[in-house]
Amino acid sequence: LYVPPGEGQGFERAPQIWAITVGENTGKFRALHPTENRTSDLFNTREDAQVAYNEMIRGTDENPIIKTVVFESGLNGNAKTLFSSPVGHVANAVNNETFSWEGDGYEANRGRSFDEYLKNNFAYRSGTVFEMDFGSPAKNRAAAEEIRKGPQNPFFVGSGYNLLRNNCGETTCRITERLDLPRDNSIAPFQHFNFINENLRPYIRNQQ
Prior knowledge:
Structural class: alpha+beta
Radius of gyration: 19 Å
Largest sheet: 5 strands, antiparallel
Distance between the termini: 16 Å
Strand content: 15-25%
Number of strands: 8
Order of helices and strands: EEEHEEEHEHHHE
Shape: elongated
Mean pLDDT: 81
């Protein structure tokens, strides 16, 4: 956990809220990100710092947090996923809301907690979660818009799921096109994984 130097020691109620005990800012509070070396601005109250912390880890409409999870293919020799996830899967989240084309379709999965979605899925298959920051609130909002639209490729509008160009990873392809990034033309989940690692690394805020 990153703690700004020279600000004393002492957590207030929760480890993510730092109470400053020395120096000119004594008595003020700031939020600390749980996994990254960054903090919020200074606040006069613990409550305001808590709001900043919630925005830091959940995102806001003004600057949403974008996440993409790529689940492994069971064909890679991992017995855990051989039958439960034979080809893998790609899903996205905006401010911890899940967007995933699977089962009953894209709309049926809206509104689910992404934390809960990951917990349920990691019980039977492995994967990697990428938290993305595309460089500005405006670009993050544009990415969120593409995710909320769903994986509707313009060449297949109205056709529903299509393995080649309306699959679970199509939204990721359209984000790169919308933001004028190197175009993701991947089809299989493992291709999306490789593309993100090789072409979008400057925009990966966190990976786990």
